[in-house]
Amino acid sequence: MRTEAEMYRLFEEIAEADDRILAVYMNGSRTNPNAPKDIFQDYDIVYVVADTLPFIEDKSWFRKFGEVFYMQYPDEFPGCQADRENSYGWLMQFTDGNRVDLHVESLVHAKEHILDDKLCKILYDKGNILPEIPEATDSDRHVKKPAEAEFQACSNEFWWCSNNLAKGLWRGEMPYVQDMANGVVRKQLEKMLTWKVGIDTDFSVSVGKSAKYLSRWLCPEEYQAYLDTYFGGDTKEAWNAVFVMCDLMERTTAYVAEKLSYTYNREECAAARSFLAHVRHLPADAAEIY
Questions:
Q1: C-alpha distances in Å from residue 201, one per residue of 88, 124, 196, 224
Q2: Are residues 76 and 116 both part of a single domain?
Q3: 290 lies in some domain
Q4: Owning domain of residue 133
């Protein structure tokens, strides 16, 4: 597997050898001082070029980066409204294990947007054409303090949609239950846990994409409870996980409400939990709920 130093040298050499390339910059986890370093980190590389179209039309130029194992052309997807004259990308997995998410970008587009992402580092600039940028930081991704209305909406969405988990489990519709749990209900718990982390760190950290760094700031028991909210295709396992989710949401919501001096609707929580418990023991042939 090519080393990080070898990859950086390759990116610069490709730029130096091609007059059409004006500059190279990088963003993503490799520029984030708080992101853990490992072998799966990809290289998010942007080449600022005089004209993007020749690079797009040449179906072989990206092979300069190595032997491609498999790849994706996201800007070629049906319905994609790509602005090819300003930006275009290739996602490439190489046979040596490295991955490069490669983009070409017009100079105009780069000057307008390079400062949009604070996780940005200039690797090469032939003519000093890019603006000076500050040291890379993930501050834009730090947990933000929620407004009370946002807090209330999160709590309400969790408890209201727990109703859907109940009816889905009673009906035996596990695909629906999984979709609702993973895409809606647990996402509200994730938000609430993220706000707890924000409170405990004075809103000075990022929990990462999909809250993947939660384990850094939750206590082991709390994080294990969060992991225990995930379940497979067994209905009994799913019911147990749902109530673990409810317990964790209830405790976390109370904590966040107290620390931020927000109102916590305990009556809503109690009503939703009562409904869940009732439906859990409802006979499969029940003619009515109550």
A1: 38, 36, 9, 20
A2: yes
A3: no
A4: 4-140
Residue 26 tokens read as 């990088």
Q: 237-265, pLDDT tens digit by residue?
A: 999 999 999 999 999 999 999 999 999 99
Q: How many domains does the chain have?
A: 2
pTM: 0.89
From residue 247, alpha-carbon distances to 45, 218, 242, 287 in Å are 43, 15, 9, 30
Strands (E), 53-86: 68-72
SS3 category, 47: strand
Q: Are 264 and 251 in contact (CB under 8 A)?
A: no
Q: Of 119, 140, 161, which residue is a domain's last?
A: 140
- Which CATH number is 174's domain given? 1.20.120.330
Neighbour count for residue 261 (Cβ, 10 Å): 7
pLDDT digits (tens, 9 = 90+) for 95-150: 999 999 999 999 999 999 998 888 899 999 988 999 988 888 888 889 999 999 99
Ranges assigned E (strand) in 18-67: 21-27, 43-49
